[in-house]
Design a protein that fits this description.
4-stranded antiparallel sheet, 0% helix, 48% strand, globular, 10 strands
Length: 114
């Protein structure tokens, strides 16, 4: 069955960096556009960044220039490099296909606080 396993979150100070990873199994990973999403308490889950099977990327305006999405089609893994983190980036981060169509994983918590 499809499994999405996010990791790499944690507590970081404002201005710091984190690299999230998402291991994907149960689908032909290389053909799917993949996305990173985030959900803060009391808010809807929003797309943060996406990467096509060919490697084209897009980022939400709120993270443009700070976050970078990448993928490894051999390891079936999608990454999110997050730099210059702000308190408003704090959320649970999830990966999924884009549009989201797979069962959600448990996510990884990102906390940005001094």
């Amino acid at each position: 069955q499809v499994q999405l396993v996010e990791s790499g979150g944690g507590l970081v100070q404002p201005g710091g960096s984190l690299r999230l990873s998402c291991g994907v199994s149960g689908i032909m990973f290389s053909i799917f556009t993949m996305g990173w999403y985030r959900q803060a308490p009391g808010k809807q889950r929003d797309l943060v960044a996406a990467i096509t099977s060919g490697g084209s990327t897009m980022c939400a305006d709120s993270v443009k220039g700070r976050f970078t999405i990448s993928r490894d089609n051999v390891k079936n893994t999608v990454y999110l490099q997050m730099n210059s983190l702000k308190p408003e980036d704090a959320a649970v981060y999830y990966c999924n296909t884009h549009p989201s169509g797979m069962p959600w994983g448990q996510g990884t918590q990102v906390t940005v606080s001094s």
